[in-house]
């Protein structure tokens, strides 16, 4: 049975309370021994004397969701995970706010940690998601993932 493509996108920043609720919901899953969490936050980098005040995220959503589905299936085949949750912001996200939440769970820490790291790297490299850095002087530039 093929798994359904899950929507990873949320409009606006990811609330800390959403992260906390996600963690809390797993306390009934007693076969889990480890969670690994990555939280991406918008930095107020200074570029050529201009300060980033926000990033405006856009995506080719249909393609990104299909690619994320493939990545998800590959990660579940590679690591003995219990569950994986991914949420990525779209729209204007102010400096200091959360824009990416990756949460992996497994029976043991190594699988959770390694899977979480691989998912984050693959999101950055493979998904058609773009960030326009908005500066304090009302200019912008397209962000390059590193």
Briefly summarize what is shown.
This protein is of the alpha+beta class. It is built from three helices and eight strands, in the order E-H-E-E-E-H-E-E-H-E-E. The mean pLDDT is 95.
Would you mind describing this structure in some detail?
The protein has 146 residues and is α+β, with helices and mostly antiparallel strands. It has three helices and eight strands, in the order βαβββαββαββ. The protein has helices at 16-24, 61-78, 109-126; strands spanning 9-11, 34-41, 46-47, 50-59, 81-94, 98-106, 129-135, 140-142. Strands 1, 2, 3, 4, 5, 6, 7 and 8 form an eight-stranded mixed sheet that branches. Helix 2 (61-78) runs antiparallel to helix 3.
Order of helices and strands: EHEEEHEEHEE
- Cα distance spanning the termini: 36 Å
Reported for the largest beta sheet, the result is: 8 strands, mixed
Helical/strand content category: alpha+beta
Query: What sort of overall outline do the alpha carbons produce when their principal axes are compared?
Result: globular
State the low-pLDDT regions, or none: none
Tell me the radius of gyration. Answer: 16 Å
- Report the oligomer: single chain
Indicate the percent of residues in helices: 25-40%
Chain-averaged pLDDT: 95
If helices are DSSP runs of H or I spanning 4 or more residues, what is the number of helices?
A: 3
How big a fraction of the residues is strand? Answer: 35-45%
Q: What is the count of β-strands?
A: 8
């Amino acid at each position: 049975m093929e798994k359904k493509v899950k929507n990873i996108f949320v409009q606006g920043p990811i609330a800390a309370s959403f992260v906390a609720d996600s963690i809390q919901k797993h306390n009934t899953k007693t076969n889990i021994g480890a969670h690994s969490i990555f939280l991406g936050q918008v930095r107020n980098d200074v570029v050529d004397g201009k300060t980033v005040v926000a990033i405006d995220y856009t995506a080719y959503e249909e393609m990104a969701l299909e690619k994320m589905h493939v990545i998800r299936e590959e990660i579940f085949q590679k690591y003995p995970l219990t569950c994986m949750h991914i949420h990525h912001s779209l729209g204007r996200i102010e400096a200091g706010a959360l824009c990416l939440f990756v949460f992996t769970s497994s029976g043991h820490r190594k699988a959770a940690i390694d899977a979480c790291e691989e998912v984050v790297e693959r999101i950055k490299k493979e998904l058609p998601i773009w960030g326009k850095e908005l500066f304090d002087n009302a200019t912008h530039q397209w962000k390059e993932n590193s």
